[in-house]
Specification:
Number of domains: 1
Strand content: over 45%
Protein name: Large ribosomal subunit protein bL28
Organism: Nautilia profundicola (strain ATCC BAA-1463 / DSM 18972 / AmH)
Order of helices and strands: EEEEH
GO cellular component, one term: ribonucleoprotein complex
GO molecular function: structural constituent of ribosome
Helix content: 10-25%
Family: Belongs to the bacterial ribosomal protein bL28 family.
Shape: elongated
Number of helices: 1
Strand order of the largest sheet: 1-2
Amino acid sequence: MARKCEICGKGPQFGNRVSHSNRKTRHKFNPNIQSVRIEINGVSRKVKICTSCLRSLKKSV
């Protein structure tokens, strides 16, 4: 589970890169995953979460 958020489950998405001549090549968009130490149920644990979840966690604290 390298590129998956442990809170919301957000993972990679696939799409196309489109050149000026309108050629399309496949491309993978990875979520912005950060490794953060969070206290869960009184236990400090290192989790991999996306930055949107990190922002919502910081807002709730």
